Amino acid sequence: MRDNEFVWVRGTKVLLVPYEKHHVQKYHGWMESEELRELTASERLSLEEEYDMQRKWRESPDKCTFIILARDRYELDTFEDVVQREIGAMVGDVNIFFPSEDISRDEGEVEIMIADPSVRGKGFGRESLCLMMRYARENLGTKTFTSKIGFSNAASLHLFQSLGFKEISRSDVFEEVTLQLEESATDVVFKFTENYHIESMSKSSPLVK
C-alpha cells in the first residue's frame, strides 16, 4: 500500500516501518521456519518469490504492511547505516487487509507475527497490533477489525481475545476461528498506545526521541 510508504509509527517498545526491499532477506529467513509458516498459514516461498511479494504488497491498495522493529535495539545500535540498524532491530511484522470491493476500508483484517522468540511474551505483539489498529482507524478510516487465527495458535488467540475480539465464526475445514473487534470496542487501542506518534519521512530514517 502506498499510503504508508513514508510513514513510521512510534510506540514505547516498537517502531513500525514500511516493508522495504532491504527487509526481505531477513523476512525470508524467518519464513523458512515450518512453525512460523504453520502459525501464519503461509506458503513457503523462494527468495525471489519473496521479493516479488514485497513489491506486490507495496503496490496493492488492499494491504498495509509494517515491519516491527524493537525500539531499544534500533536506538542503541551503533551502525550509522540506517538499513543495517533496521535489519538488526527487526522482530516481526503486522498487516491489515481490506476486501477489494470495499473502497471505504471500513473493515480490515489484521495479522501479527512476532518472529523473534527472544521478544515474545513481552508486550511487543500487543503494542504493535494496537499501533496498527490506531493507525488504520485514524488514517485509513477503518472502523471494524477482524482476524483469522488457527486453532493451534494459542498465543494469538489469547492476545486478540484479551483486546476484546469476539468469535464470530469458525471453520473446521481450515481449522481457524474468525474474531472481530466491533467499532464500539476499538477504544482499547488507546490504552496500549500512549506514546503513539507518526513521522512522515522521505527517504531517511526518523530521529527517534
From TrEMBL:
Coiled coil: none annotated. The keyword Transferase applies. Residues 34-186 form the N-acetyltransferase domain. Keywords: Acyltransferase, Transferase. One of its GO terms (molecular function) is N-acetyltransferase activity. InterPro entries: Acyl_CoA_acyltransferase (IPR016181), GNAT_dom (IPR000182), NAT9-like (IPR039135). Pfam families: Acetyltransf_3. Belongs to the acetyltransferase family. GNAT subfamily. PANTHER family: ALPHA_BETA-TUBULIN-N-ACETYLTRANSFERASE 9, N-ACETYLTRANSFERASE 9. This is N-acetyltransferase 9-like protein.
